[in-house]
Design a protein that fits this description.
By secondary structure, this protein is of the alpha/beta class. It has one domain: Vaccinia Virus protein VP39 (Rossmann fold, 3-Layer(aba) Sandwich), CATH 3.40.50.150. About 55% of the residues lie in helices and about 20% in strands. The chain starts with 5 loop residues before the first helix and ends with a strand. The relative contact order is 0.12. It comes from Pipistrellus kuhlii. Its main location: mitochondrion. Component of a multi-subunit COQ enzyme complex, composed of at least COQ3, COQ4, COQ5, COQ6, COQ7 and COQ9. Interacts with PYURF; the interaction is direct, stabilizes COQ5 protein and associates PYURF with COQ enzyme complex.
């Protein structure tokens, strides 16, 4: 009689061991073998935990980061034009309101995240300089004996006009930062700002560094919003303020229907005609629908450690400004 092969012995022993283990239940220990129902559930939960949404599409977390990067890389050159076209220019008003609500004081250190094209940063610098000019005019009215040269010198010192205020624009996308830098040069912004390549979920800054953190139309594109909010809290000084301008949930049924019609039927077409990119603007529309409603996002901000969290809906809830403080 021929001796059984090694493979056959292992197969027999393996089947026997498997049957034995299936019948074995150690006290306090639940089976977590992949083949067991519990094991299957654990694997399924792990898979779901590593998945997220890219618009209405379900993708892996890693894949979403790559896809979002590609979206903004592809639309960077037409980003500002498309913002004007999609919102009929109203986005400018929303951003102005954000600055009015911020009401920065002289010496404010601002971090603007996902602000590659500089819209919030430039408004911040304009706001600070406008404050300085108003103060100058009040002072000049009380100083009647100044020469024209002295008056001119007071207006020419751009650094003094910022009163120590400074803004850091942080964006993960190189192309968006390039556009922002070109705009800054073209519009004459030379001092008071810096451009940093960085991830909202892992900011390259020390703790307790900034007075104000802003993110406008950017947080819905991050993979882990909770991490981005925690990072915002970390880099703010005690007493610092978090401000987020983002698309939200429309609270008027009629406006909601018209808004949906415009969003899904018009915006992707504009994206194709103006930017040559239907898919990217289809994603942007879908990502708005996946973003939490005002109250839910408020709770997320509170969970990150912020206090006195409030929100203000604009344009019937098409966008909302959320505010919170690190206390």
């Amino acid at each position: 009689m021929a001796a059984p092969s090694t493979r056959a012995l292992w197969g027999y022993c393996g089947r026997g061991w498997s049957r034995a283990m299936r019948g074995c239940r150690l006290p306090g220990l639940r089976s977590s073998w992949p083949g067991s129902p519990l094991g299957a559930r654990l694997l399924s939960q792990e898979k779901r935990a590593s998945e997220t949404h890219f618009g209405f599409e379900t993708v892996s977390e890693e894949e979403k980061g790559d896809k979002v990067y590609q979206v903004f890389e592809s639309v960077a050159k037409k980003y500002d034009v498309m913002n004007d076209m999609m919102s009929l220019g109203i986005h400018r008003v929303w951003k102005d309101v954000l600055l009015w609500r911020m009401h920065p004081f002289p010496g404010t250190q601002l971090l603007d995240v996902a602000g590659g094209t500089g819209d919030i940063a430039f408004r911040f610098l304009n706001y600070i300089q406008a404050q300085h000019r108003r103060k100058q005019k009040r002072q000049l009215r009380t100083q009647q004996n100044l020469s024209w040269e002295e008056i001119a010198q007071k207006y020419q010192n751009e650094e003094d006009s910022l009163n120590g205020s400074h803004v850091v624009i942080c964006d993960i996308n190189k192309e968006m930062l390039k556009i922002g830098k070109k705009k800054a040069c073209a519009q004459g912004y030379k001092t008071g700002l810096a451009w940093v390549l960085g991830d909202a979920e892992e900011l390259p800054f020390d703790e307790d560094k900034f007075d104000v953190y802003t993110i406008a139309f950017g947080i819905r594109n991050v993979t882990h919003m909770d991490r981005a909010l925690q990072e915002a809290h970390r880099v703010l000084k005690p007493g610092g303020r978090f401000l987020c301008l983002e698309f939200s949930q429309v609270d008027n049924p009629l406006v909601s229907k018209l808004y949906d019609l415009y969003s899904f039927q018009v915006i992707p077409v504009l994206g194709e005609v103006i930017a040559g990119n239907w898919k990217s603007y289809q994603y942007l529309v879908e990502s708005i629908r996946k973003f939490p409603a005002q109250e839910e996002f408020k709770e997320m901000i509170e969970d990150a450690g912020f206090q006195k969290v409030t929100y203000e809906s604009l344009s019937s809830g098409i966008v909302a400004i959320h505010s919170g403080f690190k206390l």
